[in-house]
Design a protein that fits this description.
The complex is a heterodimer. By secondary structure, chain A is an alpha/beta fold. Chain A contains 26 helices and 39 strands. Chain A is globular. Chain B is built from no helices and nine strands. In chain B, strand 3 and strand 4 form a beta hairpin. The chains are: A alpha/beta, B mainly beta. The interface between A and B is large, with 39 and 43 residues.
Chain lengths: 840, 115
């Protein structure tokens, strides 16, 4: 079989992966692919479904890659398969197939108790389910989840985020019975208790009872108790969707599912099954990784390959309700004669268990709760010798879990199937730092959990990773910051004399200028500091390609009065400046000569404007949507918060520019998740995201804390920023800073939420000093004749404008003329849209 | 802009107007000259950045590389030897240098035509 009509029933994660895998192997398109999808939207990331409640949008969850060679029928579920005629029927018509792939997935199991049909009872499987839960939760107070497994705890967290007081009912005697053991479940429960989620273990739900309005009101439990619940989510497990196969007379597995062999084919040589609906050799797998494996097998087989199902990797690492939980290999110790090594620390709330072979030499599996940092090394070691003594491996922070002891075949990055051998080869080939290894092998580019291992492997290979700033300083920016702070150094000359060499350069001087500014050493142009500044900071404006500068007044939150808008227009008109709205909801005025800058700013300062610090490695803008004041969807005052944040952090010098945004609801119009710190309103407060940026390597910010009050939010941002300023490398944005941090986001949380390093009081004090000492840099320049003196084009001809700066007009505005210089010849000619492209 | 030969010294400004380790631009017979005052003395080179064509070298950061006094272009950070005008990052790229001296507290410049 090597081509023809291929029908795929189902467009879930595995169905989509199958189509992608086949198309990659069949670029000529010998298979004409039709996908029949039940849902009205293309494939999305169901594993991250709960992120929907954290404000992640539908489009961000989208997995579908547009492909002209694939016919995608959304909202058109298959209703029957006629194997004799090789035809699939839908409500619309019939599709003939030469090969048929069933990727119908699972359906939520709903226990047979009274009341499951009541309004307010939901399952947790699709985006539509989640949207319905969100809508129904509005104005309600108490909810319950039936099922304390992985999905049940996710649902419980979702209800919590929606502001509902939440109960979880689990039939097994512990939470997450499939993944963790009794002791691990007990540790998990301590975390869950702390979040105010009440758990009822070892009991069944016997009935769901309505209230006077007909909607659900309570759950009756098998121990005779009753709990209030105005909204119920049933998350009691899944069952394979095998009805189509069953009706078509195909054999099923012993516990349901479409029975397939190790090639993922049914007894009908034209019909295959992948993902959760497939019972591979009789067993269904409810995780996405084995599902993806089946997709790859069938794609390979359809192009004549000989792949077989490699066996299911059921290793799982996830964060549930903020708790790290991991389980891998033989987590429950089912192997004959196996030994357990366990570690329980109620103080730090860490539980870990390793399952070893009877001779204690081979790692078989394990469970980690509370701290899963050892997971990548341990998971990679399953089936092989232990990389270190068991207790060293289990000690919190996984200090003993050194990747250097792993064999070459051990998988370091499970997301991208990269082995230690691959990483070592990349290092031998010249990759000298983590970033190069990531780029070369793709290891660490998905979930990132193996990044610390990559660093360890570089260390193990003897690659020295220099942190020297430049030839003048042997230390990193972070160390330099500490030297300056602890020793109270206030000048570059003293710093370079005592801790460096030479006269400095364009790398170290701006770094030291930034450090001195962050530590509050007066105006950035005072005394020797002026000579350290990059030209932008030296003239408090942004140098453009023709030697002119641009001017960006601060417009906090993007909110501006008509009067101020008019002033900007008048200034731009009078000084003939090119005017453009920036991405940060401000207005940039281009084409100013240095001697014009004070005149422009005199007008702006008199009108109440101040420096926007567009020229500095500093807070730029806090963008906002219009928020609840006007928007019919808004739930908080996003503009008010954005203005407050911008005024609080204005002028704060940092290792790199800082951007922020505030969205007034989960629709996220302010694009807060593309910022260094982004805030999204919830019904009850604010969610804080950190580490996002646009630019060369776009990255979405990670959810850091949820449902904060405004005071809590500001405290966390204060600490986040000061800790970043003190410890980041030169020109390292917050994203790279967090990625490079040992322990990543968890470490950051420990430092600035739990105060694990005892730094918080100091961080708070540092920000308080910044806020109280802020002064507008431009006003200070205008008030000081000495500072004003440097704003001339020529020291011997202060009244002569720079003759090299000249303008032509484009679309009604001035733009640079660049007749001079080699670069001038390379400039593409303007293109007029709507007409044939004109090139002179 | 055409560079004209000037055999004479032109007084530009008081030495005090030059901040240590920072540059200024001066207009000498229609030529833009970048002047620098460093611990190694005074230096004068063309203000025109040969890579971008913009007249900005006087606004670069002054420093040293391996003991050589330098200025970095503020546009794209190429580093120039202040003594010779040679670009230390791009072989073959050079900026014209000029004579500069201090007499009686006054800075004087004499243009040179060779590169």
């Amino acid at each position: 079989m090597s081509g023809g009509d291929l029908i795929v029933i189902g467009n879930g994660m595995v169905g989509q992966r199958f189509v992608d895998a086949l198309r990659a192997r069949d670029p000529q398109g010998s298979w004409r692919v039709t996908v029949l999808a039940e849902e009205g939207r293309p494939a999305y990331d169901r594993v991250r479904l709960s992120a929907y409640f954290d404000g992640v949008t539908e489009s961000e969850l989208n997995l579908h890659t547009p492909d002209d060679g694939v016919r995608l029928r959304l909202g058109e579920p298959a209703t029957a398969v006629d194997r004799d005629r090789q035809v699939v029927t839908t409500a619309v018509g019939e599709y003939r197939y030469d090969a048929l792939v069933l990727a119908t997935g699972s359906y939520p199991f709903v226990p047979p108790v009274a009341g499951t049909e009541l309004p307010g009872v939901f399952v947790y499987r699709t985006l539509d389910d989640l949207a319905a839960i969100r809508a129904y939760a509005r104005g309600r107070r108490v909810g319950a989840v039936i099922g304390g497994g992985l999905l049940g705890l996710e649902a419980a967290n979702a209800l919590r985020l929606l502001g509902l007081s939440t109960d979880v009912v689990e039939f097994a005697p512990r939470l997450m019975p499939v993944q963790v053991d009794q002791a691990g479940g007990a540790m998990l429960r301590r975390y869950v208790d702390d979040l105010g989620v009440r758990t009822h273990l070892g009991v069944a739900t016997t009935a769901i009872r309505p209230g006077p309005d007909g909607g659900v009101a309570a759950l009756e439990l098998s121990d005779g108790s009753t709990i209030d619940a105005e909204l119920v989510v049933v998350a009691a497990g899944i069952r394979p969707r095998d009805q189509l196969a069953r009706d078509a007379g195909l054999p099923l597995g012993p516990r349901g599912g479409v029975l397939v062999d190790a090639t993922c084919r049914t007894v009908d040589e034209r019909i295959w099954a992948v993902g959760e609906c497939a019972a591979v050799d009789g067993t269904c797998h409810g995780l996405v990784a084995p599902g993806y494996a089946t997709a790859e097998v069938v794609a390979d087989r359809l192009v004549g390959g000989a792949a077989t199902f490699p066996g299911a990797d059921t290793a799982t690492k996830l964060k549930l309700l903020g708790v790290d939980v991991a389980s891998f290999g033989d987590a429950h110790g089912a192997t004959e004669g196996c030994l357990d090594v366990t570690f329980t620390d109620p103080a730090t709330r860490v539980y870990a268990k390793l399952v070893l072979s009877d001779d204690a030499h081979t790692l078989l599996g394990g469970v980690l709760v509370g701290d899963a940092s050892a997971y990548p090394t341990l998971r990679a070691s399953v089936g092989g010798p232990l990389p270190a003594a068991p207790l060293a491996l289990l000690a919190p922070d996984g200090g003993g879990a050194d990747a250097g002891a792993l064999p070459a075949t051990a998988q370091v990055c499970s997301c991208n199937a990269v082995t230690r051998g691959d990483v070592d080869a990349a290092i031998a080939g010249g990759c000298a730092d983590v970033a190069a290894v990531k780029a070369c092998t793709r290891a660490g580019t998905s979930c990132g959990s193996c990044v610390p291992m990559l660093k360890q492997l570089l260390d193990a290979a003897g690659v020295a990773q220099s942190s020297a700033l430049c030839e003048h300083f042997d230390v990193s920016r972070r160390e330099l910051f500490e030297i300056v702070r602890v020793r109270g150094i206030r000048t570059f000359s003293r710093l370079v004399a005592e801790h460096g060499r030479g006269r400095g350069c364009d790398i170290c001087k701006p770094v030291v200028a930034s450090i001195l500014a962050s530590l509050g050493n007066g105006h950035v142009l005072d005394g020797e500091q002026a000579s350290l500044q990059d030209t932008n900071d030296h003239f408090l404006a942004n140098l453009q390609r023709d030697g002119s500068y641009s001017v960006v007044p601060r417009i906090p939150g993007g909110e501006i009065t008509p009067e101020k808008l008019i002033v900007i227009g008048e200034v731009a008109r009078d000084f003939q400046l090119y005017t453009k709205i920036t991405g940060g909801q401000r207005i940039d005025l281009f084409g100013a000569r240095v001697e014009q800058l004070p005149q422009i700013w005199r007008r702006l300062v008199d009108a109440g404007f101040e420096s926007g610090h567009a020229y500095g490695k500093a807070l730029r803008t806090v963008k906002s949507c219009v928020g609840e004041t006007w928007c019919r969807y808004g739930v908080q005052d996003s503009v008010g918060l954005a203005v407050a944040l911008e005024l609080r952090y204005r002028g704060l010098r940092a290792p790199h520019k800082l951007k922020s945004a505030v969205s007034g609801c989960a629709r996220e119009c302010a694009e807060a998740r593309s910022k260094d710190f982004g805030i999204i309103a919830t019904e009850t407060g604010w969610n804080l995201y950190v580490g996002g940026n646009g630019g060369f390597r776009p990255r979405h910010a990670d959810l850091f804390a949820t449902d904060l009050s405004t005071d809590e939010l500001i405290t966390l941002i204060d600490r986040f920023l000061i800790y970043y300023i003190r410890t980041a490398d030169r020109l390292q944005r917050t994203a790279g800073w967090i990625e490079a941090m040992d322990g990543g986001l968890d470490h950051l949380r420990a430092v600035i939420v739990d105060d694990s390093l005892g730094l918080c009081a100091d961080l708070d004090a540092a920000m308080a000093r910044h806020v109280s000492s802020y002064s507008d840099e431009w006003r200070d320049v205008l008030d000081d004749p000495d500072r004003l003196r440097r704003y001339t084009s020529f020291v011997n001809a202060p009244d002569v404008p720079d003759p090299s700066i000249t303008f032509t007009r484009e679309r009604g505005q001035p733009v640079p003329v660049r007749a001079d210089g080699p670069a001038g010849g390379h400039r593409p000619q303007p293109v007029t849209l709507g007409l044939p492209e004109v090139r002179r | 802009m055409t560079q004209t030969l000037a055999l004479t010294w032109t007084t530009v400004c008081l030495l005090d107007r030059l901040e240590p380790d920072r540059g200024v631009a001066a207009l000498v017979d229609g030529v833009q000259v970048a002047l620098f005052r460093t611990a190694d003395g005074l230096f004068a080179i063309d203000n025109r950045d040969p890579v971008s064509g913009a007249y900005v070298l006087s606004r670069g950061i002054v420093g040293s590389r391996g003991g050589v006094p330098t200025v970095a272009s503020p546009l794209h950070k190429q580093v120039y030897d202040l003594r010779s005008g040679h670009c230390l990052d791009l072989p073959g790229v050079t900026v014209a240098r000029h004579d500069v001296r201090c007499r009686d507290g006054l800075v004087e410049v004499r243009l040179r035509q060779e590169a």
